[in-house]
Amino acid sequence: LGAIVDPDDTLAETNNTNNTRLGSTVAITYRVDLSVTALSAPTTSTTGANVTFTSTVKNSGGSSSTKPVKVNFYVMNDNSIDPLTDFSNAAIIATTTVPAIAAGASVPVNVTAAMRTALRSGTYYIAAVVDPDNTIAETDEKNSKRVASNTIAVTYGPDVVITSVSAPASLTRGSAATVSAGPSAVKRMPP
Q1: Which residues contact 54 (CB under 8 A, 6 or more apart)?
Q2: Long-range contacts of 186-189 (CB under 8 A, 24+ apart)
Q3: pLDDT for the residue numbered 52
Q4: In this structure, which of 19, 29, 34, 177 has its CB flanked by the most CB atoms within 10 Å?
Q5: Taking the model in full, what pTM does it have?
Q6: Are 124 and 77 a contacting pair, CB within 8 Å?
């Protein structure tokens, strides 16, 4: 912190070199600090099935957040990536919002969402990111992500298959014909 007297040199003085003084250093920090302190998910799922993610978000700062807090949940190919910047290796599964969080408080964040049907069969890491859009100024923006200690094995969900199609052996152009599809069956796709 510093002070300057007569910064525009509008006063005639005998010595202008003594018009500034440095004081003590002042640390300026944001008083909100959001982090995901716990995260869990099931160890298995199928595409299209509902999955429940359970987490805890903490505000370890000295002030309450002044607005609701968004939390995103992701599946990722690698636990070292940043789901906010590496979109090719992370897929968002769910988003939820919790009310403003008081200073020092923790809130449970649970969300149930369908596992994306476009996911390939495989093993994924689960991550949660609080304030993913950085809409809340925080003391530490780098502690907002947590990766679950377990992985989730995702297999393909049911596959509806037509088992038969029938139509007349020959048709005359412009005439009506009946075409039917046989009953469908649910098959499991191999992982």
Answers
A1: 38, 39, 40, 41, 108, 109, 110
A2: 186/158, 186/159, 186/160, 186/161, 187/158, 187/159, 187/161, 188/155, 188/156, 188/158, 188/159, 189/121, 189/155, 189/156, 189/159
A3: 96
A4: 34
A5: 0.70
A6: yes
Q: Let me know: does 146 contact 55? Beta carbons within 8 Å.
A: yes
Q: What tokens does 186 get?
A: 């649910």
Alpha carbons 140 and 64: distance in angstroms, whole number: 15
Joined tokens for residue 78: 């690698």
∠ CA 53-55-57, rounded to 5°: 145
- Give the whole-angstrom CA distance, residue 144 versus residue 187: 41
The token pair that represents 138 in the structure block = 């925080």
- Residue 59 contacts residue 136 (beta carbons within 8 Å): no
**CA nearest to 115, candidates 54, 45, 186, 40:** 45
10-62 per-position pLDDT tens digit:
888 888 888 788 888 876 656 899 999 999 999 999 998 999 999 999 999 99
Q: What angle do CA 50, 53, 57 make, to 5 degrees?
A: 155
Q: 17: which residues sit within 8 A by CB, 6+ positions away?
A: none
